[in-house]
Amino acid sequence: MAYAHITGWGMHVPKKILTNDDLAQMVDTNDEWIRERTGIHQRHIADKSDTTASLAVEAATHALRMAKLPPTELDLIIVATSSPEYVFPSTASIVQDQLGAETAGAFDLSAACTGFIYALNMATQAIRSEQIKTALVIGSETLSRIVDWTDRSTCILFGDGAGAFVLQASDEPGGVLSAVMRSDGSGGNLLAIPGGGSVNPASSQTVLDGLHFIHMNGNEVFRFATRVMAAASREAMEKAGLEMDDIALIVPHQANYRIIQAAARGLKLPMERFAVNVHKYGNTSTASIPIAVCEAAEQGMLQSGDNTVMVGFGAGLTWGSLAVRWTGPFEEAKPIKVRPYRRRAWLRSVLRRIWRFIEGLVWGRGKDSSA
Ligand code: ACO
Fold it and tell me: Ligand 1 center to residue 13 CA distance, Å?
């Protein structure tokens, strides 16, 4: 059976930074309250030109370059996101087109902030069952587009960004060792975007009522998060046959510093064993774990051969964890440039649209072209 190794990783955040002091100009809050209650100092916010797909493509470009894997060799792209470009088409299909991943399947995965954990496990299982050899898993968000900037209880928490992993099959043991995926839909109302779906289809009334924004019962979500983080981490370790001392680093979802502290207390581990960057980015939902992994690897907190646990929670309610033996790029691979593939992908996409238009003229619009 093949193992699914993480051979490339990359992140991308928008340039614009919104500090707590900036937020204090917008709503009734202050830097001290936000730092004390959340640990957040600032967050990155999408510019007009940034979208969930554009951030994802940039993060993916870094990850593919590190893995030395051309996009044309990808078999699968999964984008975990809570702020997709559209209800459909999937953000993953847009990413597939922009990268020129001509032979990859692509779909979005919705499990809120736990989405990256779920997506990584789905890609791992596809590799382990030998259905595919390579996968690109991305967490990408433009949460600033779905946050109510007049609601101080939510708007201080979230930020935008993307993180991506390349997974590749190998006979060598390692990579993703175990996974835990859980859900408790009875808490669905605690964190939701109530409008725009089939229950409350978008209308002028749903917009007037602000149903297209994130609605959250912060205290309940906080209690749930502190309950599940340590237990899920332990479960992933046990499934992988690892002890606490075998784990070099825990990478938790970056929602609130106090939630990470509670997880550390639950696991009886010092905070130094946790990757923490919530102060710089806020809660970037599905992107928070891969961004934290990228920074931890860059700072030398994760070395090839280290065991790590990634653990997240989010709306659904959902939670999950993974035990991973960190690998790094396969040594035999040769360096590649990804941007030329993206340029070719752009041209290919334009030509396909033109060809589709010409076909429409030749065959007649609306007629079955196979007739
Ligand atoms: N600035 C100043 N005061 C504030 C602010 C603010 N931004 N927000 C709330 N307050 C006030 C409240 O009105 C309240 O005032 P009151 O006592 O006069 O009523 C007081 O501060 C305390 O409010 P609490 O909600 O009890 O504050 P708490 O310490 O619980 O912190 C927070 C709130 C930060 C939202 C916390 O509950 C939390 O982090 N919850 C988890 C949220 C989370 O992780 N969500 C993401 C899940 S992942 C996903 O799927 C997207």
Answer: 25
